[in-house]
Design brief:
Layout: H1 9-29, E1 43-49, E2 56-66, E3 69-73, H2 84-90, E4 95-98, E5 104-111, H3 114-127, H4 130-136, E6 144-149
Antiparallel strand pairs: 1-2, 1-4, 2-3, 3-6, 4-5, 5-6
Length: 156
């Protein structure tokens, strides 16, 4: 099956504009608007810092509640590269996410492996079917990132 061509720069510009709009609506309405994606998949706002630019960034991402953890899927990067937010996130020890309703959590990222990844991937595809079709035309294994609660208690 031939691979589709990589998205154009026009596509990525539109993608960034829609992400900014989603973030604005999410915050303005407490997640009532922008708190879910097509088909009702829940969305959180991931805070990260650009590795090269050092600029603060916010990415709206579909997530799974795997209490007390959360999980996100590093899907739309490129045929052979993970998305920039994934690399930024993995370079950080901890960060913050915003959930619908205004809840904020400090989290620590790690990549799920083996049976845990398989279980979370199956759940992610169940709430957002395009993940499965995207996986068929990328050359990479799409990472599932577990966002563990970050310990915020001071150490002695």
């Amino acid at each position: 099956m031939p691979k589709p061509p990589p998205p154009s720069s026009r596509y990525w510009k539109l993608h960034r504009q829609l992400a900014r709009l989603n973030t604005f609506l999410f915050r303005k309405t407490g997640g009532k608007v922008g708190g879910s994606f097509f088909g009702g998949a829940p969305v959180l706002l991931l805070h990260h810092v650009g590795r090269k630019s050092g600029q603060r960034r916010i990415s709206p991402l579909i997530y799974l509640d795997d209490s007390p953890r959360l999980a996100v899927v590093a899907s739309k990067g490129g045929v052979d590269a993970n998305p920039a937010w994934f690399h930024n996130l993995m370079a950080m020890a901890t960060t913050e996410v915003e959930l619908p309703g205004g809840e904020r959590r400090r989290v620590r990222p790690r990549v799920a492996e083996g049976a845990e990844r398989a279980r979370l991937w199956e759940r992610a595809v169940a709430i957002y079917k395009p993940y499965a079709s995207y996986a068929t035309y990328t050359e990479r294994t799409i990472p599932v990132v577990v966002l563990e609660p970050a310990d915020t208690t001071p150490t002695a």
